[in-house]
Amino acid sequence: MVKLIATLFLLAVVAQAYGDFKCSLEVPEITKDWIDMKDGCIKGMRHQIQEEINASYQYLAMGAYFSRDTVNRPGFAEHFFKAAKEEREHGSKLVEYLSMRGQLTEGVSDLINVPTVAKQEWTDGASALQDALDLEIKVTRSIRKLIQTCESKPYNHYHLVDYLTGVYLEEQLHGQRDLAGKLTTLKKMMVTQGELGEFLFDKTL
Amino acid sequence: MKLFVALALFASLSSIALAKDEEYCQSNVVTACASSTFSGNSICNARFAGIDHVEPEVQAYINAQLTKSYDYLLLATHFNSYQKNRPGFQKLYQGLSDRSFDDSIALIKQVTRRGGIVDFNTRHESPASVSTKRNIVEVDELHSLALALDNEKQLATGATHVHSRATHATDADRDPELAHYIEEKFLSKQAETVRKLSGYANDLAKLMKVPDPSLSVYLFDEYLQKQ
After folding, report:
1. Looking at domain A36-204, does it have CATH number 3.40.50.720?
2. Which residue has the higher pLDDT, B27 or B217?
3. Which residues, 6 or more positions from B126, have their beta carbon under 8 angstroms from its beta carbon?
4. Domains of chain A by residue range
5. Start and end of every Ferritin-like diiron domain (chain B) (predicted)?
6. A134-191 pLDDT per residue, tens
7. Which of B49, B51, B72, B122 could be disulfide-bonded to B97 (CB atoms 3.0-4.6 Å)?
């Protein structure tokens, strides 16, 4: 009787081992002491990622507008498409940073929402450059706020703050200067020449 | 005499009507040049063939591609966590995300090349569009391949829909240029991706028919990294 029970038990174990088609693997328990990012900073990062994606979307809409045949400003369009790619890249680099710090083992599905855009048409190239500059200012401010959150007491995220300052602010500041320069030149060209100024400026972009 | 005047008037009116259709741009130029100022935003446009008919479909398809590019970005992120640690899967999905984003820009260029516009906010209901409700991306390896395969089929179905709208319409609405573009830039590439993912899913499922599939999944990820 004992033998029979033992055989049945063994059979059950074997059947279990070979019968199930197992797709999800166990996650082994390892120490989490190395994961030291704090909630406020993580939340700020998640917010910044969405900001970058929003900016990318807005730039796509600008690129699409200046690609129209009735607008026909290929220089502007290319400039904005390039900016859209860059902003998306910025967003995805921040995502990678979070993964590097041991984050994003959960809560990935709602990290990015598909945005909408505030504006899809512009009166001229100058107003679009103005909007682009405003957009960059908004992103820069948001990064500064994120830096403040992440370096505040009691826990200073030195490495992230350094990365945000050295890489992100660096790009933002140069980007803002570039846009401000372009906008100034374009406005000068348009004072008396209007459409001709914009036409010529477009070809230099 | 009265009859003659009436006839002449009729003839000239109908010739204007004809000009409106076939010489839209020229008649606009004539009108603008006859008036003292040109105040309109545009005088001519690039629209011809079935662009009116296919434009909303292409718009829906652009939005679909963009939505999928974010889905894939998150799927790649899921496999990039230290707990998942599957660089091969990450590479696969990051690649698909980048492709969808670049394809969106290419489609924007195509539709504007044809005199169309893009609307990023309105979601036109069409077989070319996809739901913006995101799938849960926290799935296991085999499941993710299934998810990606379904996604790719949806995108291929969307492109096929745009294509059939462009080809199977009444004469005036037919748009061979757009159909050709979709065929050349999308359909065959999509067939390739669908086939590849189906192959991956079937391979991985076979490799996982063992009591503990961890090593199979690890090796398959190694393989994906080299692709």
Report:
1. no
2. B217
3. B56, B57, B60, B61, B161
4. 36-204
5. 48-208
6. 999 999 999 999 999 999 988 999 999 999 999 999 999 999 999 999 999 999 999 9
7. B72
A57 touches chain B (CB under 8 A): yes
In chain A, positions 82-111, which contact chain B (CB-CB < 8 Å)? Answer: 84-85, 88, 92, 95-96, 99, 102-106, 108-111
- CB A111 to CB B77 under 8 A? yes
3-state secondary structure string across B154-191: HHHHHHHHHHHHHHCCCHHHCCHHHHHHHHHHHHHHHH
Probe site for chain B from A24, A53, A68, A106 (most B CB atoms < 10 A): A68
With contacts defined as CB-CB under 8 Å, which chain B residues touch A31? Answer: none
For chain A, report the end-to-end CA distance as a whole number of angstroms.
89
What pTM, to 2 d.p., does this model score? 0.89
- Is the model's pLDDT at B124 over the cut of 90? no
Q: What is the pLDDT of residues A7-17, one digit of tens each?
A: 555 545 444 44
Alpha-carbon torsion (A85, A87, A93, A99), positive or negative: negative
